Amino acid sequence: IKMAGDSSFPDMDSDGSERNEETEIVVNVGGVRQVFYGDNLNQYPETRLAELINCLSGGYDSIFSLCDDYDPGKREFYFDRDPDAFKCIIDVYYFGEIHMKKGICPICFKNEMEFWKVDLKFLDDCCKAHLSEKKEELEEIARRVQLILDDLGVDASESHWKRCQKYIWKFLEKPESSYPARVIAVLSFLFILTSSIVMCVGTIPDLQIIDAEGNRVEHPTLESIETACIGWFTMEYVLRLISSPNKLHFVLSFMNIVDVLAILPFYVSLTLTHLGAKLMELSNVQQAVQALRIMRIARIFKLARHSSGLQTLTYALKRSFKELGLLLMYLAVGIFVFSALGYTMEQSHPETLFKSIPQSFWWAIITMTTVGYGDIYPKTTLGKLNAAISFLCGVIAIALPIHPIINNFVRYYNKQRVLETAAKHELELMELNSTEGKATISKSELEDLVREGKEDPFYSSRLKVSHSDTFIHLLSEEKHYRTRLQSCK
Fold it and tell me: Domain limits of the chain?
């Protein structure tokens, strides 16, 4: 920072504040020089730039506590910081708010604001949302890295049952952990597929048999296959429940509830078949069993456990609740309006099919969704015109939210791939840092490092400290500030 104008700082008189307001300073940040005036800087006296006005009165100790270097000949102070971020931060002195430029890493920008002692409250809401999103991404990367490190390490202080429990959990929940785990995942997928096929094939009349009461029932062979599949599902669920580290979270998880719904009907129907006849009529038991057997379709949702594509689609739909809600609202309004108009216009025809407005809802639904079964249709000219307008409005209403939903799917899919790559990259950097000074490192040695790091809740610094652009602060207690040369490109 160089004082512009006179070769020396202006002398302070009795009106020191007035002199400060007239002071003109030049800030050199990464080779870029900016001119500031005291009246602008004094609006925010707690910031680093405002402190520069009186820094010379405190001597060199005060000077170097605020800057990286100082040239007494030029009276210039140097800062090795990101000049692009600095150009955004100084907007607070002129406009009272800050906006991030496109292409600047939000985490680096936050660190720059902390260095210049500018409060985050001056950051605009749109940029705060971007910063929050980036924080969530880093938390997700840190969580994935932590899970992988947990899988690598084995705590010798744990009991044999705890170690066995962790092994079973990885064996059933993480197919990528080992080759046998991948085999089990494929086998589970085949059981789900087989059970679904058996459920469908069992409804073919030619493959059914006649029981003693003359009713058609499933073939015994298909029932045996179904029993074997249910046995596999039951054993898998019980083992996963026993080995789960958080059993309450496991039981309340959506996919595990689906697993229970896929298994439970078999045992309930079996119980009703053998014991229900004593408590109620046989026909009621058969109806109850038939109603429970149809719940077997829930097991098809078990495929989502082994399909990353289905999981991505599910999360994308969750992110699209707003768009889906707008679609349903548009359709609901259109159904009500066009069904009422259709009922009113068709009353003049003697053979009208529109008996009431609630009955016309069905016609409006199949018309606006362009299904058109033809069981109810208008017969008057005005009714046909109303029908034409209704299905045109239906096409427009359905097409409007499709693009945002597709964008949510693509964005989430790409984000998951980036997070997965970033987690692997961070692990490679940790391993590279841990081998500093060593020619090679074996897997057992890496596990030893992880076990040593278990004493620290954030793991050993040998596995964490990384000065790359993907450094994750959440894995370290120390606070690291990137310089201009280390900032994200």
Answer: 24-146, 174-306, 311-427
Q: Which of these CATH numbers, 3.40.50.2000, 1.10.287.1490, 3.30.565.10, 1.10.287.70, describes 311-427?
A: 1.10.287.70
Percent of the chain residues topping a pLDDT of 90: 9
325-337 burial string, b = 16+ CB within 10 Å, else e? eebeebbeebbee
Which tens digit of pLDDT belongs to each residue from 53-79? 777 666 777 878 888 887 777 777 788
Identity at 251, one-letter amino acid code: V
CB-based contact 325:307 (threshold 8 Å): no
The encoded tokens of residue 432 equal: 């590279």
Q: In three state form, how does the secondary structure of 240-308 look?
A: HHHHCCCHHHHHHCHHHHHHHHHHHHHHHHHHHHHHHHHHCCHHHHHHHHHHHHHHHHHHHHHHHHHCH
Q: What is the mean pLDDT of residues 126-140?
A: 80
Question: Measured between alpha carbons, how far is 81 from 320 in angstroms, rounded to an integer?
Answer: 40
Architecture of the 174-306 domain: Up-down Bundle (1.20)
Among the listed residues 142, 159, 161, 160, the one whose alpha carbon sits nearest the alpha carbon of residue 150: 142
- Rank 16-20, 157-161, 189-193, 450-454 by mean pLDDT and report only the highest: 189-193
- The Cα 102–Cα 477 span in angstroms is 30
Up-side HSE of residue 234: CA atoms within 13 Å toward CB?
11
| pLDDT at 301 > cutoff 90 | no
- What residues have CB less than 8 Å from 312, skipping those under 6 apart? 409, 412, 413, 416
Give mean pLDDT, residues 348-370: 90
Type of residue at 94? Y
pLDDT at 287: 61
Which residues pair with residue 210 across a beta bridge? Answer: 216
Please give the Cα distance from 308 to 419 (Å, whole number).
Answer: 14
What is the dotted CATH code of the domain comprising 24-146?
3.30.710.10
Segment 202-208 long-range contacts (CB within 8 Å, at least 24 positions apart): 202/226
- Ranges 107-116, 319-328, 346-355, 428-437: which has the least confidence: 428-437
Answer for the pair 389, 368: CB distance below 8 angstroms, yes or no.
Answer: no
Pairwise CA distance, residues 413 & 425, whole Å = 19
